[in-house]
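We keep the chain:
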Amino acid sequence: MTKAEYEKIANTSMSNEEFLILLILLPVFAIAHADGEYDELEKNAMHELIGGLVSEVYSELDKKSIETMITAYEQDFNFIFRNQYLEKELLQELRRETQMIDGLANQVNSFMNEIASASKGISDLEQNKIDEVNDLLNT
């Protein structure tokens, strides 16, 4: 699924960089919810990951703007998971990106493990989801 296709379905617009952040963090958000719980530790870790990537790309943004983008990403992720077919389509797009950007698959894997470890260690459900995404990304 291309950025333009996602924007049309989600009735939104975003830069190429914002779309790449969405793709990178989509499996991370899925891991955070894999065990049916999205506790405060996972939420805080997710916010730190989003904020860190946004700050890296848009160094000129102030804290309030970053918080607004964190909220927007959470809304996007919730929209995607309410429309399950989007997750598969977007993960395929992430796979294409990892084939073009050296080291991206390893970074996604690192983020997934970081979020899974944020609370009570890595559950079997979280590990299964990590393995599923890694298989797709061929890591």
User: Anything to note?
Assistant: The mean pLDDT is 90.
